Amino acid sequence: MSPLVRKDDDPRNTLEELLQQSRIEELTSEHDGYEDVEPAHSSTAHDFNGHPFPGNHLQPARTQAKPPLPPWLQAATLGLFHEDLTTTTTQAQAKVTKECLPHLTGQDTSGFELNSHGLPHLRRTQHAAFLHAQFEPLPAPYVAIDASRPWFFYWVLSGLSALGEDINPYREPLIATVRPLQNPTGGFGGGHGQLSHCACSYATILALTIADALHVVDRRATWHWLGTLKQPDGGFRMAIGAEEDIRGAYCAMTMLTLLNLPLELPPDSLARTAGLTRFTDKLGEWISHCQTYEGGIAGAPTNEAHGAIPRYLDVPALLAWLAARQTQPEGGFQGRQEKLVDACYSHWVGGCWALITAALQQPPRNSAALWNRAALVRYLLTCCQQPGKKKGGMRDKPSTRPDAYHTLYSLAGLSHAQNVFTYNARAPTTGEGRSLAAFNWAARGPSKEEMRELGVDEEDLVNFVHPVFVIPMAAVERARQEFEDGTL
Amino acid sequence: MGRYSDDPAWADIIPLPTDEGGPNPLAAIAYDDEYAEAMSYLRAVMAANEFSPRILDLTEDLIDMNPAHYTVWLYRAQCLFALKSDLHAELAWLNATALEHQKNYQIWHHRMLVVDVLDSCEGEREFVSRMFELDAKNYHVWSYRQWLVRRFGLWEQGELEFTRDLIEKDVRNNSAWNHRWYVVNGREEREEGEAGGVVGDAAVREREMEFAMQAIEKAPQNQSSWGYLRGIVRKAGLPLQGCKAFVQRFASLEQPDEVRSSYALDFMAEILAEEKGSEQQAALALDMLAQKYDPVRRNYWEYRKGLLGVDAVAA
Question: Which Gene3D superfamilies match (chain B) (predicted)?
């Protein structure tokens, strides 16, 4: 990617990771000498607070007193439930805890500049440089992303927007680059000559929305193409002949909404043969079949619950499932039960709090009252920023390399944690046969008090990232206005 | 000068070079010559909608270079079926490719299409088990295994034992727990009216609860086994109280310093919240979670406490 990154990052090592949504999350299963995480020194919680030895706290303060550790990082909490049986899962978890703890507790600050709360600043300049560099020519081994290159357009532009960078210089190159990816029968493929695919089309359309270039999209053809993906059982395929899963439903509904396309199915849609007339017909039922006994939502009916998207649902069970995804002690999110923390779920799970708050019968004051925002901020700032003076980008966890995917979803996670998003339940959800619900979100930034609780300074704040579309709020509003009259 | 341009078998094809949209495309890949050439032939034959044996060679070549190429997989599948190709040979090739590219999405969908047409799942479960030896939580492989069970009606042909063995190996393998749930309840959930699973069959329910409880004894701090147990009780519509004596052994309010599992304490809070007049106790359990046993989720526990309708707790 960037000359900066290419020097020491062999792309071959990271290609699999860059691309595929489910990457290798497990570390090797051999027990390599890591004991289960021990309580740091003794059983008294206070010893761990930067005063490992008796009397240390009496020495003159070096520069500035370290702020006390939060409850979930206190020795007493870390020492809970240790006698439990060791298995492959616990070994992998112990290894991750071990690599994260020094960063989380501030023992190892990776040479980062610290903010007024003792946490690393958000390294805006380095992350922006890292994202800009993704748009440079890629060496041959990057052929592995040849079928998913549009994701890069989206991750980079959305990430840069979250950091407040000017993306306008990329507008014309983006328009030129995606033109050969659009098929006359509707949708975008991963490259020239590739079949239209939901993920590629979703990513391209979001990138074009950010760049204010949606005029490029053939909306009528897109509507027809989406009609071919809608299935008689209510779900969506990812491409013609491809798998049917929840990503298809999410990507398709996102595109229909952003482009203000009719919810009426095109006349030639196969789903019409089963009596369906609208894109939303049987969709709620289909998604409800994806909710498992755990409370989460699987990729397809009966599959294991996996952290991504959310009224056909057992909302309290879903809430419990989401809450349980925040990992102890790392504070980030895992994608499934008994799996490892990964920064990308800062969005895939962290982005659900605002959404579920809107669905609760007895909602709290705001979504912030449901989860631990400070823990996520701490995880992202201490564990997920790539160290090195000139290096940037964000990563899954300390033992991994940064990439555009983790950089965007980490920044989005920061936005979910720092800001409060509210849904206007009085606004219309449909109008003239179109889907409007996703346009009813408003955002506000943190108060001084909230910033103190979260451990962030002014310069660590990111711009609002829309909780549904994961692009700037302003870009969503612009798209809504652009297609308001609804003509195709 | 290339594998295809030098081959007389491809002489009738005029390759279609890539259109990068202009001189400065974003994130342009510096394709090596082999891939660029193969892609230019792919574009040409796809534009002509050709289905012939040489397409199988071309697509295999491309998949070797880029296994995540969904277009190539979909085109290959169409071609295989149009030509009525040897699907056993296809599976043999897929086995090697799957082992080499474990996290690939497309390959499992392709395999499903092939095995569906073959109408036989011989050898499939054995192969899938090999994949689980490499990664016992591979999401795509588990989806495929569920499909096999459904498509070939394998509900009572060793699947339960298979999950037992995997859970024996790692009691926290949530994927294996999820598959067990599917094997036990899947048929009833899909074919309405069938009475079985943990709802319709008391013996099955007791067996599964016992299985979960034994797993909990082995490793109390395990979300998977607690989730399975609670899932059964909830689905069967039974009062949670039935589990109280068992849960108490892992989380008792009388011994607030000896809680052996935060999941047990959460379960206890739910049991108490359902009991008339025990709201204060439920609040106490939630306080214990918020203060001591699971402080990272303090806000969530406080929210749950708010739902109880009690103000303060005399702790």
Answer: Protein prenylyltransferase
To probe the interface with B, which of A337, A353, A371 has the most B CB atoms within 10 Å?
A337
Instruction: Copy the structure tokens of residue B169.
Output: 């190996």
Inspect the interface and report whether the beta carbons of A90 and B172 lie closer than 8 Å. Answer: yes
CB contact under 8 A, B16 and A193: yes
Reference A38, options A66, A76, A68; nearest CA is: A76
pLDDT above 50 for A214: yes
Report the residue of chain A nearest B36, measured CA to CA: A143
Question: Domain A86-162+326-487 falls in which CATH fold?
Answer: Glycosyltransferase (1.50.10)
Extents of the domains making up chain A: 86-162+326-487, 167-290
Q: Which residues in chain A are contacts of B170 at CB distance < 8 A?
A: 87-89
Q: Which chain B residues are within 8 Å of A181, Cβ to Cβ?
A: 21
End-of-domain residue from the set B42, B66, B85: B85
Domain at A167-290, CATH from 2.40.50.140, 3.40.50.300, 1.50.10.20, 3.30.479.10: 1.50.10.20
Tell me how far the alpha carbon of residue B88 is from its chain's centroid: 26
Which of the listed residues B85, B107, B142 is the one where a domain comes to its end? B85
Mean pLDDT, range A368-391, rounded to an integer: 96
Separation CA A355–CA A297 (nearest Å): 14
- Residue B29 three-state SS: strand
- Let me know if the fold of A86-162+326-487 is the same as that of A167-290: yes
CB-based contact B139 A80, cutoff 8 Å: no
Report phi then psi at B214, rounded to 5: -65, -40
Averaged confidence pLDDT in chain A: 86
- Mean pLDDT of each 10-residue bin along chain B, 315 residues long: 94 97 95 97 98 98 96 98 97 93 90 97 95 93 96 94 97 96 85 76 96 97 97 94 97 96 98 96 98 98 94 50
Using the Cα atoms of residue A99, residue A94, residue A91 and residue B134 in order, give the sign of their dihedral.
Answer: negative
User: What is the least distance, in Å, from the CA of A430 to any CA of chain B?
Assistant: 31
Q: Which of A84, A98, A119 is nearest to A38 (CA)?
A: A98
Q: CB neighbours of B214 closer than 8 A, spacing ≥ 6?
A: none
For residue B315, tell me if it sits in a domain: yes
Q: Which domain holds residue B17?
A: 1-85
Q: At CA B214, angle to CA B210 and CA B219, rounded to 5?
A: 145
Amino acid residing at B160: L
From the list B66, B77, B262, the residue facing A147 with the nearest CB is B66
What is the rounded distance in angstroms from the CA atom of residue B165 to the CA atom of residue B161?
Answer: 6
- What digits encode the pLDDT tens for the residues A270-308? 999 999 999 999 999 899 889 999 888 877 776 665 543
Answer whether residue A46 shows pLDDT above 80.
no
Mean pLDDT of A206-211: 98
**Residues 268-307, chain B, touching A (beta carbon < 8 A):** 291-300, 302-303, 306-307
Which site among A168, A293, A356, A365 would you substitute to test the B interface, given the most B Cβ atoms closer than 10 Å to its Cβ? A293
